Amino acid sequence: MGDSPKALSYYEKALAIQQQSLHSNHSDLGNSYISIGLVYDSMRDYRKALSYYEKALAIQQQSLPSNHPDLDTDISTSSPSRIAYQYETIASPVRSFYENNTQQPTYISFESIPHSISKEISLTPPFQKKLPIIPVAILGFLEIFGGLIVLVLEILVFDIAVGIWCGLVYALAGLATIVLVICTDRERHQTSAVLIFQIVALMFTITEILLHIDFYQKRCVTKPDQPSREASYQCQILLSQIGGAAIVLISSLIFSIIYFRVTIIVLKQPHGTFNISNAMNLTCTLNNYRWNTTGITVLDISFLYTPSDIYFDSNDTLYIVDESNQVIVKLLKNASTATRIAGLVLSAGSNASQFSTPQGVYVDSKGSLYVTDYYNNRVQKFVNGSTLGITMSGINSSAGAALNQFNGLRYFAVDATETYMYFTDPGNNRIMSYQMNSTTGTTGQLVAGGAGAGNTNTQLNSPWGIYYLPTISNYLYITNWGGHSVMRWIPGASSGQFIAGTSGSNATSLSSPTGIRLDSFLKMFIVDSVNSRVQMFCYNNQTATTIAGNGTAGNSATQLSGPRSLAFDSSMNLYVSDTANRRIQKFVKL
Fold first, then answer.
1. Positions of the NHL repeats (predicted)?
2. How far is residue 555 CA from its own chain's centroid?
3. In this structure, are strands 513-518 and 524-528 parallel, antiparallel, or unpaired?
């Protein structure tokens, strides 16, 4: 299970920072809530886990449009579980299997399922919402009633001392049952504890009934020729005590039957370990992730010449890097005209208002713009609409391999708390990390590659695109432009892991991949630049599906030509920078 308390501590610290710096419905808060929930889930504290999943759901409901696919809560069909069902299936993976036994339960990641638990998850029979509340509560009240009868009658007769203990046990068993259904979530360990009370009560009731029947036979049956008022009274007391014990006996038996019936239903299902990759891949095999393959041009050569990276902010404003025109433009939601926000048109240079072939773009939660400036080997920050950039990393017009230099910057990624930025440095075949408050000349940290160009697991080969996955390990997914592959790397590790791609044009191949994104199901979307297509790889699957372009360069609505980057709006519509066609294409989510 790992060091869950330590992981929880770090997640809570990150959440505290986010809560101070981000607006209340920012998606990164949802990611943090999910991460904390997953840690509680691994610690088997399901109630706390569910509370965090519900907080994440609330954020999604506020920040996403009502028709967003992640808000589809239909769990009655064979479609994958959505956000509203996600927290329940993670906490109780078997339960979704019982309710829909035609498929395995689905786990949704919100881009934050820790890899340490993403391969196999132990399946423990859950009991949440399994025991019927009203019948079990009635049984508890009956046991308390029966216990009180036995206690009162025992006190009246001062005869059979065992009855006092029996009455106490009955009352405790009934009280435990009431507490179970009213004050808890009826989880397995709580239900099992109540069952122990019931079994003990069952043993006491059988013992007491046998004793009282024996006394009744001796006093009331074998001596009928010696009737007296006192003897008759004692016989009535004995019968009443037997009746009270019988009430408890029947209640305990019914509770035990209910418990074991639920247990048998659970244990009939296959459990032990569950391969989460199969569940993730349901989102691909069920064909619910499809886009119209005919693109819509949202911007063309009238506004762009060589579009490179694209990025959506939380308001669905699209930011586009036009590397040949040396500018950054933005396109408001539903607008048809773009606006220049940084750079001087066709004016390459190295001063604060210029770029020299800009590449990557990002806008933080405060509205500041970040741009990687390829030939100037620097990262520029534009604060709150300013057209004068501040160099936050790199040394202006100084290429090199030192830790405060770059050698040709491409794309970059930002962590969930907007603390660190990760830059692809293709000329040095490495990934560099800088804090977002860095200034020019600041020494960065080498977090991946740096061992020369190559295709081994310790090397990168002209890295271009990068995606940060906020998990326990904080994976970096990197496109190897020169290696025609995708690598996954833990920041600071000496080696990475091959994920997908070999040189070629078939479903398992890539040719000079550039942009990369992952969605909430851990599906990976790759811009396969030379093959002029966008490829979707399901979780833990090295065979891709083409979702945009047809593998042949062209300028028709169904084709792409040398695409560079991709982005999704809040409705999961796909946007692609169709670089050689000098346009931005939109592929509508079906």
1. 349-385, 551-590
2. 38
3. antiparallel
Please determine, for residue 577, whether its predicted confidence score (pLDDT) is greater than 90: yes
Q: Specify the residue for token string 């762009």.
A: 304
- Residue 213, Cβ density class (10 Å: 0-12 exposed, 13-18 middle, ≥19 buried): middle
- Would you state the structure tokens that stand for residue 60, as one six-digit string? 């999604």
pLDDT for the residue 65: 54
Q: Which CATH code fits 4-116?
A: 1.25.40.10
Q: Is 418 helix (H, G, I), strand (E, B) or coil?
A: coil
Contact 189, 264 (CB under 8 A): no
Per-domain boundaries in the chain: 4-116, 133-267, 289-444+460-469+509-524+544-587
CA–CA dist 462, 512 (Å, integer): 9
Residues forming a β-bridge with 311: 319
Phi, psi of 207 (to 5 degrees): -60, -45
Q: Which residues of 407-422 are buried (b: 16+ CB within 10 A; e: fewer)?
A: bbbbbbbbbbbbebbb
What mean pLDDT comes out for the span 248-262?
68
Q: How far apart are CA 548 and CA 585, in angstroms?
A: 10
pTM of the model: 0.60
**Which CATH number does 289-444+460-469+509-524+544-587 carry?**
2.120.10.30
Cα 368 → chain centroid: 28
**Where do we find the tokens 């989880």?**
187
